[in-house]
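Why predict the complex rather than its parts? Because the way molecules touch one another can change local conformation, and only a joint prediction can capture that. The input here totals 613 residues.
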Amino acid sequence: MTDEQLPVRADALGKKYPRGWALRECALEVPAGRVVALVGPNGAGKSTFMGLVTGLLRPTTGRIEVFGDTPNGRGMHPAVSYLTQQKPLYPQITVAETLRFGRNSNPGWDQAYAEELVARASVPLTAKVGTLSGGQRTRVALAVALGKRPRMLMLDEPLADLDPLAREVVLRTLLTECRDQGITVLLSSHVLAELEGVCDHLVLLSEGRIQLAGDVTALLDGHVLLVGPLGVPCPAPPASVVDVQTVDGAQVVHAVAHPMPPQHGWRSLRPRLGQLTLAYMRSGGSAEVAA
Amino acid sequence: MTWIVWRLQRPLFITLAAGIVLAVGGALLLRAVMTADIAAAGLADCVREGLQRGVGGACGSRQVMEFQNAWGNRMWVAQVLVLGLPVLVGVFVGAPLFAREYEQGTHALAFTQSVSRTRWMVTKFLVTVLPALTAVVVIQLAVAHWVAAAGELGPQQSGPFTAISFGVAGVSPAAYALCAYTLGMFVGAVSKRTLVGMSLALGAFVVIRFVVDGFRESLGTTTRVTFDDPFERVDKSAGLTVDGGWLTADGKEVTDTSRYDFSDCATKDSTTCYHEKGLVKSFYDIIPADAVGALHLAEASIFVALSAVFVAGTVWAVRRQV
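Output of the joint prediction:
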């Protein structure tokens, strides 16, 4: 069985462009069957990481394995589907012809399934791809990506050009399909809110380095959100503090969970993923990382 | 894979088919009109015999001048068009082949299917190159068929080695087109920009043609023709003169006569005078007219070899990870 082969395993992975490092010393394992969110601000190295997985880019340092194979320039790993930010499709052909292209160029293609995905999105098969709306285009691109029956689906900012309603529909469709079929999803985004409640594994990139990585539940268990009045010192040990903010006359502190004495006026809450991630992004990686 | 390339290039194939129909139809029509003109002017013999032999006869007449005024330029334009076809193929078919995919980002779609990049590249190359070359060859033959009807009154009178006549005959147009196409494909795949690829393909192909033109003569096998009279000239229709000069009695070649003093020849018979000075024969190294096919093949092999290099370069460019 190939179960022992992780979808992605990176070791000391780095990528340098002429203008500088986009990714440095990245050690990462993407577990199978999970929905992995790759988050980080613009330019953090998300697209670079995905390019390295597809083999479109070559690592400058370190190594990367996709289902046990090293990506190369010959072609993408057959078990991986990749949807880029631009969701490229040939605009001059029809939806049906696009699916035919998918069928011709993928041995494991599931035509009925792809057609069903398109039908569920109410996209007419006879329409030219160039005439579709952004949401419809995304649904067709998704049908091509899923029709290949991949073991891992990689999506780079898949929702960036969609309106809020389309975002929700696309995301729900995506996750239903992937959860049903046990497909590993690697999803990149800089919009944290839309990933909350969606991903169960998080990788936070910042300036080309992994700042935080791990199971979402474990991450939330490992951190606390402390809210207390101004002027009263925070009970958390200073080394464990990720980020301090002042909101509406109160201190809001994200910290790594430690046993700490009760402090008058301070409440300890379970952090939310979006807030915690933002806190890490603001801190720039000064606190010790728990996972 | 073949199907999608065919489907995506459909507008191009329709254009090529329309070009073939127009060119063949036009050439046949013009040939018919021209043949009627020749018959009406009574020049049928001159088409066979040419002007030289007819001087003083019907072929030196006003009718010939009128015919050449009317048809000379038209045939010239048609031949220049055939000469330009390979460049058009390189610029408008070869260069956008990969550059446009990179520009639109659709290469990422192709690269993320289960088809290897090499197969994608080779399929695109083959499916597009065959119709393009077919169009070039068919149009070449149609124009040649028309021009041949003018015989010795047309471009044929200057022999098969002129820059235009050589470039539009034999395997040359196909070889040029293949080279221009693969060159365009290569620079397009490397630059990833359609406009840059098109400009580079145009410039580089013109340079390649120019350079090869410069040493084409040296590719042919020459035959030496000698004359006992140092002033006898080789007939132009015999072939392409590559080298020429005089031979001394012991067979030494003399091409530079500046060290000879011919001042005393003015008063004598020139032939005798040259003989006295040791220049007993004249010689010409020519590529015979009937060897033009071999020269076409020799030159074409250079363009085919360049094409192979460009195809290999395209494979590298497409498979390269940046």
